[in-house]
Amino acid sequence: MKQTVYIVKAGDTIEEISNRHGVDRDVLMDKNNIKEPNYIHVGQQLIIPIPAGDATSEENGFSEFWLYFVDAVGMPIAGLNAHIYAGPYDYRLSTDSFGVLPPIRIYGTNVRPRVFVEKIGGGEKFLSELKMFPGSHQFTFHSPSRLLKY
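Request: output the structure for the sequence above.
Response:
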């Protein structure tokens, strides 16, 4: 059985997450070694099994992508917090020292990931909606500003 990762958000419950992803609540709890359904926390990563025969299963293909962030002179932007909404999945990730987010794999072809980054003063800035095709892809985002390093 294939699986993906979901990051718990404020207000999420095991019941809601399992219903949203079409996974039995007990299977979700067992897969994540959760003994008590009321004890999940914001930011917790849950493994979500993808049921065989699901419309988003491997039979319909997958897209995997990396996002690369650079400043106006092409230097990597390390530690940038990004938020990716990809169909039923919600990822909150930070770039590594090379300005790259961990790869994200999406099953199915109707998902159009929306990319946001955290603004310095708070909130999020929408960057792009990605059109996905089966296979692996890299997208580079160029900031109009130059980062100053001291």
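The first helix runs from residue 14 to 21.
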